[in-house]
Amino acid sequence: MNFPALLIAGTHSGCGKTTLTLGLMATLARRGLAVQPFKCGPDFIDPSLHRMVTGRISRNLDVRMCGTDFVRRTFRRNCADSDCAVVEGVMGLFDGGEGSAAVLAKTLDLPVVLVIDVRSAAESVAAVAHGFATLDPGLRLAGILCNRVGSPKHQAMIAEAINTHCDLPIIGFLPRNEAVSIPSRHLGLHMGEEHPLQGEGLTQLIELIEEHLDLELLMRIAGQRREEMEAPLAPLVPGGTPVRIGVARDGAFCFYYEDNLDLLREAGADLVFFSPLNDSKLPPDIKGLYLGGGYPELHAPALSANRTMCEQIRHFAEGGRPVYAECGGFMYLCDSITDLAGTTSPMVGLYPFTARMQPRLRSLGYRQPLVEQDCLLAECGTMLHGHEFHYSTIEETESFPAAYRLGDGRSEGFLLHNTLAGYIHLHWGRTPHAAARFVQACRQPF
Predict the structure, then answer these.
(1) Please, what is the angle between helix 17-30 and helix 45-54, to 10°?
(2) Catalytic annotation present for 327
(3) Are residues 116 and 195 in the same domain?
(4) Which residues contact 420 (CB under 8 A, 6 or more apart)?
(5) pLDDT digits over 409-434, tens only?
(6) 49 and 19 both lie in a single domain
(7) Which residues in the chain land under pLDDT 50?
(8) Catalytic residue among 254, 327, 334, 442
(9) Range(s) of the domain holding residue 266
(10) Would you say residue 232 lies in a domain?
(11) R_g of the chain, CA atoms, integer Å
(12) Number of folded domains that form the chain
């Protein structure tokens, strides 16, 4: 029997695919289905929203960053105990080259449902639908979802045009309703932990989905996935003696690829989560630290005020214990963070840098760091894979020791004591040995 799964794609960013995806996930979950969510691309925020509405950890599926084999493995492994899978696309369906939703859909043999924002068009929507359906014959575009419909007359005009010119079923027409929109901030939407769609907002969204979408048709489309689910797969990395590793996780540090955490566990890590915002001390008996990305700039005064935690982390790192930090975690290890108003908040003080927030995005894109010096994660000559996205700048790093070099010539992965820190969010899907190497470093006696 085929496993029901589909991908929700959009014509472009901002067409409403995240809201519709969340509504669909929440509606199916309310009907009693175990919905396994996934996100196409390197995004951290949408997976947190998926988890909010399904109660299940959402996984990133990124062919460009993680490779085909790892993407298929992640999909199969995490669907094993669920009733269906819903994958949210990224940007427009064909945007992003190897990292696009179209490539992912073909990799996993997923039928695609296309979300079209119709608020400024009517009959022309049929041309959009026809173009998306015929651009790539290898892609199975299986249905259309029209979002932000203005009136019954508007809906009728669109329906007639699509039915006349396209051989695609219309799954539903969702009316305009700003009450179910999700607020945003400079890095995108709010995280699921902040409950941006809670209470009445989520209830209204579910009611809209129930009323305006043909869910039976949608599930029939999901059942069209031809590839059979296979048996569970063996671990990617060898295990070993358990070792406790502290992982910072709270409102300031919330950007982690769940598959990275799983790879650490496979390698023998006992992950102990703690909060640099709220805890006064590090967890006992930890042998390493992992400081992920997030929003330290939004919590800078509180992080700065927790001097006991800052001092414990600095002493831990200065003592030679393994510490890996990326993006927000890297900023936290710096001397200070300066916000847009010019206010400077002292941080851990391990690195002699100041992270300065900027009004515009400073760096965005996939990265392939080439390791030029042995480090916690890899030997010299290894190519790592990840993504960069940040609004801050650090200008004092030019002559500082670094583990790897980026394609544009920049140094990254700054080395101090036994700490590796930088802006790149690495995903270890292509390099699972990086997780094993970090765990092994934590096992070493000091």
Answers:
(1) 20
(2) yes
(3) yes
(4) 323, 324, 325, 375, 376, 377, 403, 413, 414
(5) 999 999 999 999 999 999 999 999 99
(6) yes
(7) 1, 185-190, 192, 194
(8) 327
(9) 243-443
(10) no
(11) 23
(12) 2
